[in-house]
Design a protein that fits this description.
UDP-N-acetylmuramoyl-L-alanine:D-glutamate ligase, 15 helices, Protein-Tyrosine Phosphatase, Chain A, six-stranded mixed sheet, 2 domains, 39% helix, single chain, alpha/beta
């Protein structure tokens, strides 16, 4: 068979390597990694959790770049382009830079079956190794204990909030999920948890392995008013901080976890107060309560589970008064759709469910059925109309909405990505 020549070719190849899209376990990926030089001399920060991982990684990257460090960052999933998953010095990897590393992983794996995530992660890690970063930030894909990212020993680990998601892989309770996620902790090394109600299983596991556990509310905290906020840790206090550029009340919790990690690593990665201020002021992350310019207001949010939907609901409440709210909603069939809708049912006047690509995605008609089961049906004051794509639904909403209305696009990454892609395409045609 002809070897893949382009990034698209390699990604298509990676999709065919394993009969299942998700296969938990480290044995296969570790066996391939042994044939690749993937050791890192720099500090490694691993970030896991149910929600808040992306924001935490983005703030870490922004602050450490402002401090002058050569930062490598791996995140997943991507919104528009695969290259977003690998960043160095604040820039996404180019196709050309990544291609030889795919070839090396292919040679090293032999007959070993790797999932798409495992295959691409190994190529990204190999590129990072060649970049010789000062610090490496790795976002966990799913869970922690059996996620491929966990084959790299972290010098500091952060677990953000913990809630029910991917229960078929991680277990049906917060305690079960917390135990899985706690396995990114390492003996004798800083282990940060920003969940205000950390599961007992996480605390017990950290104690069992002798990790340096730092809990929100016990070892670090934050306080603030309308103008500024302050962080207080075990040994470090940072005062008079501007609020993060990322919107949403939950971002202070994420920011506090970031500063707790930087406090724990301060002897290896010293960071000035000015770098913290600059990093928080300039951080960007599309799709996390992202408010687009213009009127009516359009909000993009990748809230794809009930916990994230609850945060979205709270953030919507803090936006002020709007005449009506329109919702473009698309999601995967295996999510708790009723739980997601439940948090937003009383805040949305008009529902525009959409179909998304892929076998896991719920169709627009399936979402209409779930909405009906939750008591949301069309009527004189309520629209419930299905669409085949998010961009078609948003165009309809914009044609019907008043200037004082609000439009939210939420759910799966694919829902938000379709809107961002349509805006990018429109911009390129101008």
């Amino acid at each position: 068979m002809t070897a893949p020549q382009t990034l698209s070719d390699w990604l298509s190849h990676a999709e065919r390597l394993h009969p299942r899209g998700i296969a938990m376990g480290l044995e296969r990926v570790r066996s391939v990694a042994q044939g690749l030089d993937l050791s890192f001399d720099c500090p490694v920060i691993t970030v896991g959790g149910t929600n808040g991982k992306g924001s935490t990684c983005a703030m870490l990257e922004s602050i450490l770049l402002a401090a002058g460090y050569r930062v490598a960052l791996h995140t997943s999933p991507h919104l528009l382009e695969f290259n977003e998953r690998a960043r160095f010095l604040g820039e996404s990897v180019t196709d050309e830079a990544l291609l030889p590393h795919f070839a090396e992983v292919e040679q090293a794996r032999g007959q070993t079956e790797l999932t798409y995530f495992e295959f691409t992660l190994l190529a990204i890690l190999r590129w990072f190794h060649a970049c010789r970063p000062d610090v490496l930030i790795l976002e966990v894909g799913l869970g922690g204990r059996l996620d491929a990212v966990n084959m790299i020993d972290a010098d500091c680990s952060i677990v953000t909030c913990i809630d029910l998601d991917h229960t078929e892989y991680l277990g049906p309770t917060r305690e079960a999920i917390g135990w899985e996620k706690a396995h990114i902790f390492r003996t004798g090394r800083p282990a940060i948890c920003t969940d205000p109600l950390a599961p007992t299983s996480l605390i017990d596991y950290a104690r069992e392995i002798g990790a340096d556990l730092r809990l929100f509310g016990r070892d670090f905290n934050y306080s603030g008013d309308r103008q500024q906020w302050s962080y207080g840790g075990r040994d470090v206090r940072r005062s008079s901080l501007a609020y993060p550029a990322l919107r949403g009340a939950n971002q202070l919790l994420n920011a506090a976890g970031v500063l707790a990690a930087l406090e724990a690593l301060r002897h290896r990665l010293p960071v000035s107060q000015q770098a913290v201020r600059q990093g928080l002021a300039t951080v960007e992350l599309p799709g996390r309560f992202q408010v687009l310019p213009g009127r009516p207001a359009v909000v993009l949010d990748v809230a794809h589970n009930p916990h994230a939907a609850a945060h979205l609901a709270s953030n919507l409440d803090n936006m002020g008064f709007f005449t009506a709210t329109w919702a473009v909603f698309g999601a995967m069939r295996d999510k708790d759709l009723a739980g997601i809708i439940g948090h937003l049912r009383e805040r949305v006047d008009h529902w525009l469910p959409v179909s998304l690509p892929g076998p896991r995605a719920a169709s627009a008609d399936e979402l209409v059925q779930v909405l009906a089961e939750q008591g949301v049906s069309p009527g004189p004051q309520r629209t419930v109309q299905p669409f085949q794509t998010p961009r078609e639904a948003l165009a309809f909403a914009l044609s019907k909405a008043e200037e004082g209305d609000r439009l939210i696009v939420f759910g799966s990454f694919l829902t938000v990505a379709d809107i961002l892609d349509s805006r990018r395409s429109a911009g390129s045609r101008r």
